[in-house]
Design goal:
161 residues; alpha+beta; Endonuclease, Chain A; 4-stranded mixed sheet; 5 helices; 4 strands; 44% helix; 11% strand; binds zinc ion; Restrct_endonuc-II-like
Length: 161
Amino acid sequence: MYDEKEYNKTAEEPYNLKNPPPASSSTVKKVMRSMKTKDTKAEVTLRKALREIGLSGYRKNWEKALGKPDITYPGKKVAIFVHGCFWHGCPKCGKQTPKTHSQFWIEKISRNRQRDTNIILKLEESGWKVFVFWECEINKDVQTLAKDVAEFIQRTDRSIY
Ligand SMILES: [Zn+2]
């Protein structure tokens, strides 16, 4: 999603998704650089906690599931999205959008949120159980989140799918 080369382009045209505004401070730059879309620190942490609790049969970014969830248990129809607080507009920790070019970021983040909502709804409509975990929740208490997933899978015995 975030591409350093695109990002560093001098912006003569109006800003758009392929031509985002330049980072205006070193803090913004640092935040931007830390925003990978795959194998983020939060994903790695969560997957480790899931393995430790005995849920190791997951797929990463499984292409057959809509939206390629970060983690899926295909046989159980359980999908987990790990959302970066900044990109997805976390309602829990209120990570702020950069002060400069904030209109650009607000629009981009709201588009991401819309996309998230659509994907989640469609997955649920086709029988998936979807968990959305925020980066800040994972940092705070990953064990509880992993336990929630484990309990759901045990309780519902979704192996019938
Ligand atoms: Zn957050």
